[in-house]
Design goal:
2 copies of one chain form a homodimer. The first copy, chain A, has helices at about 30-50, 100-115, 165-180, 180-185, 220-240; strands spanning about 20-25, 65, 70, 80, 85, 90, 95, 100, 125-130, 135, 190-200, 205-215. By secondary structure, the first copy, chain A, is an alpha+beta fold. Chain A starts with 17 loop residues before the first strand and ends in a 5-residue tail after the last helix. The interface of A and B includes residues 10, 18, 68, 158 and 209 of A.
């Protein structure tokens, strides 16, 4: 088991002339897919451990969230077609003849996630669920029960990590967390959770582009929209410039 | 329109002690999704240009390929449940009342791709198709027809590229191309296209791990499997060591 430590020799990103950082927020489809599938993997692992004492092989990391259709309207629109969440990849559906309710676990975990994280998404009415998980490869099903020197692994993977964050990264991350925080949502309940922030730094100048939809039910007309938008910009600008950020 | 050029100052990857490179081959589900969606985007753009003179807004880059189910058998198994290809994201379905046959274009493009690239996948019998593309965001639909100094863009994106490849990258890439080449498939027709190669270099030692399934129809028994596998290993080893690689 070889561990190799090498010295990193490069111009720190914060000292480079150009830096671009993107953060997809809580309600962004890509984040929803990753977060839900992560929760499904945790729920499933707990169920496997409860039943068999070990985690059985599964690769729960592929999902697709397809957009629905809505009719928007100041004061309140209508969801005309719910979103569709498709669960892909593989799990162990059966252990020695004992079936594991994979599909039920996946769907109920997703519903819990929506309920907990997105104020305006009704997990029953606004999302359809389609479980397309397949049985795990037979050659890998026993991977966690093999005896050996090391723990079993689901997959061969190379992971990359780094620390600390640059100022740009920290500002982008904290700004997303701030505009999706309970206190901000209390102040600006009409701002949705589907947020994307791009931070673009050239030298010492930082530009933040924030995409954040407003919920039509809570906006009565165009004037109010632009007024609230200006208030959001003012509030977020104050936050970004506040000492807590630097 | 600012262009910033900075000098790269870091230890070249090829001189670092550890290097890990992975390549997913032609028949890997991730590659299939990317390749098919790329083709769909091209087909669709051509259709838009033919009809309207410009490309209409679309984001065709999300797909999910869910595994089917098979019964394997030396000499020939059976596909018990076809794969499922789900097309997600957005396209412009209608221009000034004129409907564009997005779903048909997506499915027929995918079928063509399977037919052209995977010898043993029958696009009619082995794959189901589910188009979940939604209408594009209204605010973005006219993005290519806006007048301005610059061309319109579908999205805000940061792209990263580099050159040249390291030796490890080149060996991994060329090995995948080799084992998925027509000449190799003629010599070893029983090797499938769903290939994954991991190259792991420690100092001057390179380890290649190749995952490549055999097609059961073309293997008669266990002995033949191991014999052919040994021949594949010998052939690939010869290729990797050949002067053409370095």
């Amino acid at each position: 088991m070889g561990i190799v430590v090498s010295e990193l020799r490069q111009t720190p990103v914060s000292e480079q002339e150009l830096e671009i950082v993107e953060r997809k927020g809580l309600g962004h489809p890509d984040h929803i897919c990753d977060a839900v599938m992560n929760e499904v993997s945790i729920s499933l692992s707990r169920e496997y451990i409860k039943r068999y004492g070990i985690v059985m092989h599964h690769n729960i990391d592929k999902a697709l969230l397809a957009a629905g259709a809505v009719r928007r309207n100041f004061g309140g629109g209508e969801v005309k077609r719910p979103m569709l969440m498709v669960f892909g990849d593989r799990a162990t559906y059966e252990v020695d003849g004992d079936p594991v309710p994979i599909d039920e676990i996946a769907v109920s975990t997703a519903k819990k996630w929506f309920k907990k994280n997105l104020r305006f998404v009704d997990p029953e009415r606004h999302v359809r669920y389609q479980v397309e998980l397949a049985r795990g490869s037979e050659a890998l099903r026993d991977i966690f029960s093999r005896k050996g020197k090391f723990y079993g692994a689901n997959d061969t993977s190379a992971a990359v990590g780094y620390s600390p964050l640059t100022d740009t990264e920290r500002i982008v991350l904290h700004t997303e967390r701030y505009i999706n925080s309970p206190s901000f949502k209390k102040e600006f309940p009409e701002t949705g959770e589907d947020v994307k922030i791009m931070g673009s730094r050239e030298g010492g100048d930082l530009n933040l582009t924030i995409a954040m939809a407003f919920v039509d039910r809570l906006i009565e007309n165009e004037n109010q929209y632009f007024q609230r938008k200006a208030e959001v910009v003012e509030d977020v600008t104050r936050f970004v410039k506040s000492s807590s950020m630097v």
